[in-house]
């Protein structure tokens, strides 16, 4: 029996389709029934709606240990996709609770219930920091505690430490570190907000590099790694390193709208994050553009995907293949 956490999110929902198409027995965690509607849409997208009924849904919360006890009965493998994504400094405690403590709970349950193997979905944000004159980040790049990181990056790195603890205690583990994941099903969340903003005529772009990947590639690599004998390894999942300018132009062309036309240089982004802070302070709204985000919009480092290519012989989708779902998604609301 396979357990999927974060099953009602982008990666989790597409993973469910993949597992059920392969005739796997699957348990999936959910917190409220409303969230299952988006999962159903993903199954419809894949022309696999009848398979949706085969999922064993369990209402639980990874931060609530008692709710996990029944969840892990008869489970032999776990895909840990659950996480909280936010770059608002006000969400630090929530990020630590879900990403670090929640992962620790999952790892502890895996050990207590004799789970054979876990695949943990991390992020490129948890990879290391480049030294002077370096330009490419790999799985071996060291994390520098003196380097400024977002709370999200820190908690995803902390979550990985919990998984490695499980590995030291005998649990088989693989970790994947995806870039920005794009895919069908959640037009009002995550990476799809980028597409939605472009649709609305977002005018700004920068020339920093962006690491992107299709949700289908993430799911394919995860399942292949879990079926393999690979243990105790992490893999960067990135299809392409492209400029934000190229990404935004590509999306605008696919959506048949005007391309962003204002180059956001370092001065403009510095003004932007300060204005965002001020409006957040005055109006009590969540941060949308932080200092860390402003800095990352000008990064020129690249992420190397050669390790996963060598391990699986995998070929990632091109940028045009990644966004084929756009024509079937609703970004006009």
Instruction: Note the main sheet.
Output: 7 strands, parallel
Could you say what the CATH architecture of the domain at 2-185 and 211-238 and 302-319 is? 3-Layer(aba) Sandwich
Strand count: 14
Distance between the termini: 39 Å
Give a structural overview.
The protein has 333 residues and is an alpha/beta fold. The protein has a domain at 2-185 and 211-238 and 302-319: Rossmann fold (3-Layer(aba) Sandwich). The protein has helices spanning 10-21, 36-45, 49-52, 65-69, 92-112, 151-168, 192-199, 215-227, 244-255, 266-283, 291-296, 306-312, 319-322, and strands at 2-5, 26-30, 56-59, 77-80, 117-121, 136-137, 172-178, 180-182, 204-205, 209-214, 233-237, 240-243, 262-263, 302-303. The strands form 4 sheets. It has a 7-stranded parallel β-sheet with strand order 3-2-1-4-5-7-11, sandwiched between helices. It has a 3-stranded mixed β-sheet with strand order 8-10-12. The longest helix has 21 residues, at 92-112. The protein is globular and about 55 Å long. One of its GO terms (molecular function) is aldehyde dehydrogenase (NAD+) activity. Pfam families: Epimerase. InterPro entries: Epimerase_deHydtase, NAD(P)-bd_dom_sf, NAD(P)-dependent_oxidoreduct.
């Amino acid at each position: 029996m396979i357990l999927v956490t974060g099953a009602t999110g982008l990666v989790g929902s597409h993973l469910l389709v993949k597992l059920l198409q392969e005739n796997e027995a699957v348990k999936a965690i959910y917190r409220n029934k409303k969230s299952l509607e988006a999962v159903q849409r993903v199954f419809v997208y894949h022309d696999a709606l009848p398979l949706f009924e085969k999922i064993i849904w369990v209402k639980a919360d990874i931060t609530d240990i008692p709710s996990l006890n029944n969840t892990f009965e008869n489970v032999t493998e776990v895909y840990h996709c659950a996480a909280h994504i936010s770059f608002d400094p006000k969400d630090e405690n929530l990020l630590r609770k879900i990403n670090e403590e929640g992962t620790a709970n999952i790892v502890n349950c895996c050990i207590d219930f004799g789970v054979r193997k876990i695949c943990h979905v991390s992020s490129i944000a948890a990879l290391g920091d480049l030294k002077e004159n370096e330009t490419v980040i790999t799985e071996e790049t060291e994390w520098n505690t003196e380097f400024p990181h977002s709370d999200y990056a820190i908690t995803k790195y902390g979550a990985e430490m919990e998984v490695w603890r499980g590995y030291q205690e005998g649990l088989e583990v693989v970790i994947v570190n995806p870039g920005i994941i794009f895919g069908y099903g959640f037009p009002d969340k995550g990476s799809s907000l980028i597409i939605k903003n472009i649709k609305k005529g977002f005018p700004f772009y920068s020339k920093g590099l962006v690491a992107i990947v299709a949700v289908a590639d993430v799911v394919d690599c995860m399942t292949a790694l879990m079926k393999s004998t690979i243990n105790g390894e992490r893999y960067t999942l990135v299809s392409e390193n492209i400029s934000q300018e190229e990404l935004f132009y590509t999306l605008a062309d696919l959506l048949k709208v005007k391309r962003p036309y204002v180059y956001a240089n370092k001065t403009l982004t510095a003004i932007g994050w300060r204005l965002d802070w001020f409006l957040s302070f005055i109006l009590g709204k969540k941060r949308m553009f932080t200092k860390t985000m402003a800095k990352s919009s000008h990064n020129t480092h690249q992420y190397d995907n050669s390790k996963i290519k060598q391990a699986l012989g995998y070929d990632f989708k091109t940028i045009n293949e990644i966004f084929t779902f756009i024509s079937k998604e609703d970004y006009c609301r």
